[in-house]
Specification:
Layout lengths: L2 H8 L9 H14 L4 E5 L6 H15 L5 E5 L3 H17 L8 E3 L3 H4 L18 H17 L4 H11 L3 H9 L4 E4 L2 H4 L1 H7 L10 E6 L4 H8 L3 E2 L3 H21 L6 H35 L4 E4 L1 H16 L8 H12 L13 H14 L6 E7 L15 E7 L3 H10 L3 E5 L5 H7 L8 E5 L11 E4 L11 H17 L3 E6 L2 H9 L1 H4 L8 E4 L6 H16 L4 E6 L15 E7 L8 H14 L1 H21 L11 E5 L6 H4 L8 E4 L2 H14 L13
Parallel strand pairs: 1-10, 1-11, 2-4, 2-5, 3-4, 5-10, 12-17, 12-18, 13-15, 13-16, 14-15, 16-17
Antiparallel strand pairs: 6-9, 7-8, 8-9
């Protein structure tokens, strides 16, 4: 890759200065995309991932003859704004012929008024006749394509004019060069089928940029995670009975002889009979499984066992003869999707019929594939401890063990992809787990930060652990003392993260042992098990209010939770992060199935790392990155877990990470004090090359 390529790529580079790490990532991106390949980039916050990836993708798009689309996929609305602002800056630099058209969109529920959970329809354009509706939408579409707009601005304009922002954004996507949207548009099958084709997007002519790609495996897994309670069959029966009564009344009151409607009615009556039989048979089956479960938390069952039980009941309900296996069940699934009740329950987001249909669809598709696991577990109740789960009813719970069975074929269809994150480590693991095609150009790489590591030292305490066999009063007291020493000798707001809510709540009760008693008092802001986006934003806002009043706060949360992932804390509002322990996945039937599956796919040496140790360490890496949102930010990190000094965990940490061992709370306090004396003030400068 010569200097000429770099110069032409820099035409689409948003900023005036190109750092060494950005240059390296930019050239690697061009290198793979020219051959429809893949870059899996572990790139620290602050190096400018967004600007580098967009510049490379736009260069390749500009060279292509068939007008490739660039899909920038992100699960964070804050990143939407960064992408839109970056494209605006690029448009200020390039000629009129190269102006970039962009569509920024989020979920329909956030873009529209009153979205009906059953039909998916909104009331944005209620009362407006069709011709005016089309005209109004096209006016908004033209504004969207005229210059890059944040989705919030699109929504505001649509509300003023009574236009559906979501529908307008989808129309504009057909002519946009860059579409900023959620992962679901590509990686969740039912969303993708209804979304991409309607927007005129073909994966084969698209470049994907996947931001925060460390989240992608779990996002793909979540698409196939569903559950079925014993009462689901009764609820599906009730919905079908209600729908049948409604349709019978509708036909009886109609003067038109509609043979098709009568045919549909007969199908619904058959479905009602099937569900009536199923609810009785499956109640007995669930009772048997509950006895087998006993006092265990969960247990794995075979997918075919579950399917065969339902199939057996269906065949008996129809007195059916010899038919193709699951043929009756597949017909039932189609009918289940037809059932649309007049309204859903207060806490329901889908019908019982559609939930049952979806689980059965998944089970049939993966019945001979160990990538899907079915587990019997207990329905969790908010606020209950795990020891109380035995009082809760059971359910069938589906888990996708291997996201690669879905993501691999989708990446195969694309014109190349860039996957990037500050915690995409090791990048080779994500290439394996997501089944990135091996027959095309591949680069898996860890990029180094251009910024000095002395602005973000990482202390690891070698005298404490949360390992179950080492817990005790002495260990707890030392953890308290490390926390106390860090808070006492630091400045500003401090984040304090634990491996679980149970442990967080335990230490919250010990607050007087680790929270310095000073005036004004330090306020504790605690993460709750169930928090809305608004509550999270309110908690975040409290940190700024405390700082402006000259006060301090401790943000207390859970590793892998709401405060430690997916929330940005700009302006160096957090000046220190303390992480207690390792968030290793607790023993479970699901975790055991995952490890065994990975043993078959990757061998024993990688199975433990891919299923347990690496995800736990990556949760830590996410948490310690919260205070660092731009290159100049400074923050102290304290990791209270001596297992991180052991080889099997140490190899899970990025090689660029520089750590300092501390032997006791006194050393932690001295290191903390020295750091804040050397860097007394947080960074306040704006940095436009934020990652």
């Amino acid at each position: 890759m010569g200097g000429e390529d770099l110069v032409s790529a820099c035409e689409f580079f948003a900023h005036d200065d190109l750092r060494d790490s950005q240059k390296e990532m930019l050239l690697d991106s061009i290198n793979v995309l020219e051959e429809n390949g893949f870059l899996i980039a572990s790139a620290p916050t602050g190096i400018g991932k967004t600007a580098a990836s967009l510049a490379a993708a736009l260069k390749i798009k500009n060279k292509s003859r068939n007008g490739k689309k660039i899909l920038f996929l992100t699960g964070r609305q804050s990143q939407h704004k960064i992408v839109v602002d970056t494209i605006k800056k690029i448009n200020q630099k390039v000629s009129n012929e190269l102006q970039i058209k962009l569509t920024d969109m989020i979920g329909r529920e956030s873009m529209c008024y009153d979205v009906n959970a059953i039909t998916g329809e909104c009331s944005c354009e209620g009362g407006i006749e069709e011709r005016a509706r089309r005209s109004n939408r096209m006016k908004l579409v033209n504004k969207i394509l005229e210059q890059p707009m944040h989705v919030e601005d699109v929504i505001r304009l649509s509300r003023d004019e009574e236009i559906c922002a979501w529908a307008s954004a989808r129309i504009s996507a057909k002519d946009a060069d860059v579409i900023v949207c959620d992962y679901n548009h590509v990686f969740i099958e039912n969303v993708m089928k209804s979304s991409l084709s309607s927007m005129g997007i073909e994966l084969s002519n698209s470049i994907l940029i996947v931001d925060e790609a460390h989240n992608l495996p779990d996002r793909v897994r979540n698409g196939l995670e569903t559950f079925l309670q014993p009462l689901a069959f009764q609820h599906a029966y009730d919905e079908t009975n209600e729908y049948l009564g409604y349709k019978e009344k509708e036909i009886n009151e109609s003067d038109i002889d509609n043979t098709f409607d009568f045919g549909e009615l007969e199908g619904i009556r058959t479905l009602k009979r099937q569900l009536n039989k199923l609810k009785k048979d499956m109640e007995k089956w669930y009772d048997t499984k509950e006895k087998e479960l006993g006092d265990k938390k969960d247990m794995k069952i075979e997918t075919n066992e579950f399917l065969n039980k339902i199939n057996e009941s269906l065949m008996e309900s129809l007195d059916a003869g010899h038919t193709k296996k699951f043929e009756v069940m597949e017909r039932m699934i189609k009918l289940l999707y037809v059932i649309v009740p007049e309204e859903l329950g207060e806490d329901e987001e889908e019908t019982a019929c559609s939930r049952l249909a979806y689980l059965l669809e998944i089970c049939i598709e993966y019945r001979d594939n160990s990538a899907l696991a079915l587990v019997i577990d207990r329905i969790p109740s908010r606020g209950r401890e795990k020891s109380e789960y035995t009082e809760q009813p059971i359910r069938v719970h589906s888990f996708l063990l291997d996201p690669g069975v879905i993501s691999g074929p989708l990446f195969e269809q694309t014109s190349g992809s860039i996957l990037m994150s500050g915690t995409l480590y090791p990048p080779s693991m994500y290439s394996d787990v997501l089944q990135i095609p091996e027959d095309r150009k591949n680069i898996t790489k860890e990029y180094r930060s251009d910024f000095l590591s002395n602005r973000r030292p990482i202390l690891i305490a070698r005298d404490v652990t949360t390992k179950f066999t080492s817990r005790g009063l002495s260990n707890t007291n030392k953890i308290n003392q490390h926390i106390f020493s860090t808070i006492e000798n630091s400045k500003g707001n401090v984040a304090l993260f634990f491996p679980s809510y149970v442990m967080m709540e335990k230490f919250r009760a010990l607050e007087e042992d680790w929270l310095p008693q000073v005036w004004p008092s330090i306020r504790v802001i605690e993460e709750k098990r169930a928090m809305s986006k608004r509550e999270i934003e309110t908690s975040k806002k409290s940190l700024y209010e405390l700082e402006s009043n000259g006060e301090r706060g401790v943000l207390m949360g859970v590793l892998g939770g709401k405060f430690s992932e997916g929330v940005d804390y700009p302006d160096n509002i957090l000046q220190a992060v303390i992480c207690v322990g390792l968030p290793l996945a607790p023993p479970s039937a699901q975790q055991d199935a995952l490890k065994k599956y990975y043993e078959k796919r990757f061998g024993n040496s990688l199975a433990w790392r891919y299923s347990s140790s690496q995800p736990a360490v990556n949760s830590l890496m996410q948490a310690i990155g919260r205070p660092i949102r731009k290159g100049e930010d400074r923050a102290l990190v304290v990791l209270l877990e001596n297992r991180l000094l052991q080889r099997n965990y140490k190899i899970c940490m990025p090689s660029s990470l520089q750590t300092i061992e501390v032997s006791n709370p006194e050393r932690t306090g001295k290191r903390t004090k020295s750091f804040f004396e050397y860097f007394p003030e947080p960074a306040k400068e704006n940095n436009e090359t934020m990652g």
